[in-house]
Amino acid sequence: MRVLVASIGFGSGHNRAAEAAAEKILREFPEAEVKVVDFLNWEKNVWDRLSESVYFTSLKYIPSVYHSLYKAVSNLKVFHPIIFGNYVKKMERYLKGYQAEIIISTHVFCAKASSVVKKRNPGVKSVRGVLTDFMDDRYWNTLALDKFFVATEELKTKLVSKGIPEEAVAVRPIPVRKEFHVKKERAEACKAVDGLDPGVHTVLILGGGNGLGGLAEVAQCLVDLPVQIIVVAGINIKVRERLDHLKLGHPNLFVFGYVSDMHDLMDASDVCVTKPGGVTIAECLAKKLPIIVYGKPLPGPETENIDYLVKNSLAGLYTSPAELREGVLKSVKSLRGGLQ
Question: Is pLDDT at 339 greater than 60 in this prediction?
Answer without folding.
Answer: no
